[in-house]
């Protein structure tokens, strides 16, 4: 095994482990700022380090310190303390492992060898995600049962019923997609979506399978226990549901597991229905062929984006009231320097690439970075949809949740399979 092989393996594993963890902070920040926007309030703007608030990101650090230093209570009445401790670990670890089979870039060819850009280069693809996503509910059921609390038990039972109700439509929606794609391999599915329909429409799953995309997204919301499908922890009915007896970092692991699951679900939705790592109208080989002009375009686009971001930051990072010496002005000045430093570093690297490294394998490495960036942007946008729905729709009643799964999504998913099969057979 060469040094390049070892480097790429380590890079893939680090990406699969650390990117979902880093997105916990991004998703929590997005949740708070999004909730504040929809409710017409300021959001987190008090926690700071020497006056620097980082747009509310410092609040995440304050929450982490609070959870870590909080007293870790294990109720004395528990009969199964081992399972009580194990449950949050299952929820968190399953959420991390579910991301392992999702491709974040196309297959990279260097020196005549092909490198699959997944944490675990497996052909199981979507089957890996389905197996682990279904297993994650065991942690919730175990937490409710081991808490020896009636609210916890009810929360666990609701989670089990919810998973049974929505995993069937989700699986049937995936069957329709697989009929179109002809493979369960997620890299192959993303590569398929790099083609063009009628020569100008990207063949994304949402174009080929609009009904299947809606069914899958709704079921993914239910799988993640996000509002309006958070019946397992409904505060107005069950106090906190399955995690009512948890405190400190045990509760923190449930909290982090929810946001990792949200990121993973967003990533699988993007991979199946929104082109994955594909840039619209620019397939991998097209990007490689036009790497140099694209680099010049990026060298112009990066400063423009930095300038727009600085304008937005200076406009929104101000108090609603007049101050003679607002500390936020100093904060914006420092952030502006940081942004322009990053812009300068990116442009210097692109310039060095143009002068010294363009052509051959270097073009494919550049394309890989572009596709990773595209994948993360799409996934972030889908995470915002999760936040958007949470702070727009109220929680469903339990009978409404079950009726939606069994009487609406299930018949529609079966109908979608029949229609998709008929169209594919007719066109083949």
Task: Describe it.
- The strands form two sheets. A two-stranded antiparallel sheet has the order 1-2. The chain has a two-stranded antiparallel ribbon with strand order 3-4.
- The model has no long low-confidence stretch (mean pLDDT 85).
- It has a domain at 67-281 and 359-427.
- Helix 6 (150-181) runs antiparallel to helix 9.
- With 428 residues, the chain is mainly α.
- It has 16 helices and four strands.
In terms of topology, how is this protein built?
Blueprint: H1 3-38, H2 58-69, H3 81-98, E1 108-110, E2 113-115, H4 126-135, H5 137-146, H6 150-181, H7 186-192, E3 196-197, E4 201-202, H8 205-208, H9 210-223, H10 235-238, H11 248-273, H12 284-289, H13 291-316, H14 327-357, H15 361-390, H16 398-427
Antiparallel strand pairs: 1-2, 3-4
Helix pairs in contact: 1-11, 1-15, 2-11, 3-4, 3-5, 3-11, 5-6, 6-9, 6-16, 9-11, 9-16, 11-15, 13-14
General form: globular
Outline the biggest β-sheet.
Answer: 2 strands, antiparallel
Mean pLDDT: 85
Order of helices and strands: HHHEEHHHHEEHHHHHHHHH
- Tally of DSSP helical segments: 16
Please provide the count of β strands: 4
Distinctive features:
single chain, about 425 residues, mainly alpha, two-stranded antiparallel sheet, two-stranded antiparallel ribbon, 16 helices, 4 strands
């Amino acid at each position: 095994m060469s040094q390049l092989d070892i480097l790429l393996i380590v890079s893939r594993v680090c990406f699969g482990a650390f990117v979902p963890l880093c997105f916990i902070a991004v998703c929590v920040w997005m949740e708070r700022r999004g909730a504040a926007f929809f409710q017409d309030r300021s959001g987190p703007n008090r926690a700071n380090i020497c006056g620097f608030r980082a747009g509310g990101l410092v609040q995440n650090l304050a929450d982490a310190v609070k959870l870590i230093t909080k007293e870790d209570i294990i109720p004395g009445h528990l009969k199964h303390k081992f399972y009580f401790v194990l449950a949050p670990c299952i929820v968190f670890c399953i959420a991390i492992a579910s991301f392992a089979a999702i491709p974040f870039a196309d297959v990279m060819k260097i020196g005549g060898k092909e490198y699959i850009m997944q944490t675990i280069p497996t052909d199981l693809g979507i089957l890996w995600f389905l197996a682990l996503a279904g297993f994650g509910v065991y942690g919730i059921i175990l937490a409710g049962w081991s808490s020896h609390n009636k609210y916890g038990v009810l929360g666990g039972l609701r989670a089990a019923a919810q998973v049974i109700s929505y995993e069937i439509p989700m699986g049937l929606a995936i069957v329709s997609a697989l009929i179109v794609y002809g493979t369960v391999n997620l890299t192959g599915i993303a590569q398929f979506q790099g083609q063009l329909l009628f020569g100008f429409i990207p063949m994304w799953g949402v174009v080929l399978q609009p009904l299947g995309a809606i069914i899958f997204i709704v079921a993914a919301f239910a799988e993640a226990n996000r509002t309006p499908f958070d019946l397992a922890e409904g505060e107005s009915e069950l106090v906190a549901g399955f995690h009512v007896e948890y405190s400190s970092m045990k509760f923190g692991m449930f909290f982090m597991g929810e946001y990792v699951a949200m990121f993973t679900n967003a990533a699988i939705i993007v991979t199946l229905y929104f082109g994955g790592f594909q840039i619209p109208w620019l397939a991998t080989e097209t990007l490689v062929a036009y790497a140099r002009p694209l680099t010049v375009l990026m060298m112009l686009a990066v400063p423009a984006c930095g300038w727009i971001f600085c304008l937005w930051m200076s406009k929104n990072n101000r108090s609603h009231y007049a101050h003679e010496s607002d500390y936020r002005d100093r904060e914006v000045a420092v952030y502006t320097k940081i942004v322009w430093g990053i812009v300068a570093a990116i442009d210097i690297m692109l310039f060095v690439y143009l002068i010294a490294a363009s052509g051959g394998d270097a073009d494919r490495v550049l394309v890989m970075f572009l596709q990773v960036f595209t994948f993360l942007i799409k996934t972030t946008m889908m995470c915002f949809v999760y936040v958007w729905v949470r702070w727009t729709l109220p929680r469903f009643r339990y009978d409404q949740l079950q009726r939606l799964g069994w009487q609406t999504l299930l018949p529609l998913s079966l109908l979608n399979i029949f229609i998709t099969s008929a169209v594919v057979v007719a066109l083949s």
